[in-house]
Design goal:
mainly beta, 6-stranded mixed sheet, 12 strands
Length: 174
């Protein structure tokens, strides 16, 4: 399994007890969706290694307490401590309406109600205070704030997002 075919679920943050149990901090608003997993992929270098889960439960609501198959000692648990957890993209619940996953909209066309065609979404920058659409237009990059008020419609059939940006925002880049 390749990282490109998966989504980041969380990170193993500490050991629980002395028999190899682990606590993972999940990167989700709905941790209960992931409390009955059969397996998980753990990042080991540039590879993803599958691990089967013997048992798991939510711990203090945001942490997943899990016992992995073949991880029975503190030393074995130490070896995967701080590792990232991944699941296949197919595990993500389907979103509808104007909700979307960042990976899902890469390659979508962006249109503005006033300006017209803006360009193609090449990525989403979520390293800033506000997430930004990165849109390519004839070799130029346009950054559009990912603001619910700007997003008019996400059209999955046509692979496009229609926005209504403040006057002059797009012109700043062109």
């Amino acid at each position: 399994m390749r990282k490109e075919d998966c989504f980041y679920l969380g990170k193993i943050v500490k050991k629980y007890g002395f028999k190899g149990e682990l606590l993972a901090k999940l990167d989700t608003d709905e941790p209960e969706l992931y409390k009955n997993l059969e397996s998980v992929f753990i990042a080991h270098g540039s590879n993803l290694v599958p691990f089967f889960i013997e048992k798991s439960s939510l711990h203090k609501s945001q942490l997943l307490r899990m016992k992995l198959e073949d991880v029975d000692t503190e030393a074995e648990a130490d070896s995967i401590l701080k590792s990232e957890l991944y699941l296949p993209l197919s595990f993500l619940p389907k979103l509808t309406g104007n909700q979307f996953y960042f990976h899902e909209i890469i390659g979508f066309k962006m249109k503005d109600k006033t300006y017209g065609e803006v360009g193609i979404i090449t990525s989403v920058n979520d390293n800033t205070a506000q997430a930004l659409f990165e849109v390519e237009n004839n070799g130029k990059q346009i950054l559009i704030p990912m603001n619910d008020e700007f997003i008019v419609k996400v059209d999955r059939q046509q692979k496009e997002i229609i926005v209504s940006t403040p006057e002059g925002l797009i012109d700043l880049y062109l």
